Amino acid sequence: MARIRIQRCGPGRPRTRPERVAADKGYSSMKIRTYLRRRGIKAAIPERIDQINGRIRRGESLCRLDRAAYRRRNVVERCFNKLKHNKALATRYDKRARHYQALVTLACLRLWLP
């Protein structure tokens, strides 16, 4: 989250705080939700069944899920699946982060250029 940079349409420095984060149930911990809430970021993260049962048992309200925002998450998932067709990218053979990032950039270019 600290490395996010969202370019602005006009001049100015990039934004470092997205409007919304969409993630799967693996990222529904209270620590992540608290972090997002503190930074003013909306979360489109469904709750795990054990968290739902705990909230019901304690008498707390359930987290509301923006289903429309969560459904748009599949676009990103499909992009990752297309990127994993590159064997070196899927297996993460590179030892250095900058080499892996360069490989991701090349794979994205191969997707976008016909």
From TrEMBL:
Superkingdom in the source lineage: Bacteria
InterPro entries membership: Tnp_DDE_dom
Residues annotated as domain Transposase DDE: 21-113
The protein, known as: DDE family transposase
Species whose genome carries this gene: Streptomyces capillispiralis
